[in-house]
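Support case: glutamine complex. Customer-provided input:
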Amino acid sequence: MVAPPEAPLLSLRALREQACLILTEAGIENPQQESDWLLIAALPVKRHALTLDGDQHVPPSELERAMEMVNRRARREPLQYVLGTQEFRSLEIAVTPDVLIPRPETELLVEEALQSLLDVRNPVVADVGTGSGCVAISIAKECPRSTVAATDISRPALGVARANAISAGVCSRVRFFQADLLGAFARGAFHAIVCNPPYIPSEEIDRLQPEVSRYEPRQALNGGEDGLAYYRRLLADTPSRLRHGGHLILELGYLQAQIVKNMAASTEDWSSVLCRKDAAGIERILVARRA
Ligand code: GLN
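Agent response - structure generated as follows:
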């Protein structure tokens, strides 16, 4: 009997070329870099093997895993969902399509929160809409005197956040609550309230890049008709939950700073309202001090 012909084994070099071609044709901006990241995640090879050991053959099961990841990315699923992780400050944050992928600008939100806590002995902080938990967990990690209450309306998101808190070794100081914004928290409970709310105007979401509009949770993006719905609610709800002298620290969407600053300045709740720019020079973080 003649054995059926076996599919020829693909070399690592050929796989690398094919993966890069697939991503190029899919319109991915850095196809070589991204295909290399995907191959390193899918195969038991180190980065240098991709260039130095291209002759080695890729076993079929590994080939299948690699191609599955490359094809997901070619359908414009975000690289972070395919890899399952995103770096954020000092942490590797696990991400799934249930949570927003942490953005570099949000690292500034953490920085401002930490700054506001410098003089507080044992700070109690709320992170509203915690998503992956990146903000709450970073604060707990970088301010070991703090305890953090992290809320989200999405139960699956809380599952991801809780797992991240465990991996980061801070689960004893971060508590998770399923709640719409601050839910039933007591008056004056917090030294700081931080939030990166959904702030994209509803109509604009479908015009964003497919990675965002097709894959990231709409609930985490949608800021209502004008993108400002959560700022209105947060500015109304947070003053009573903050201690006097406590801080509300919010991430802002593109060109929203002036409007949100004006909203805050139109009440007697805040003794100061400042904005901080991001690396691109856009006013990105609002810091309001409770009167
Ligand atoms: N707090 C999370 C983050 O900053 C999630 C924010 C959101 O879903 N809008 O990434």
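The chain has two domains: 10-75, 86-290.

Case will auto-close in a few days if no follow-up is received.
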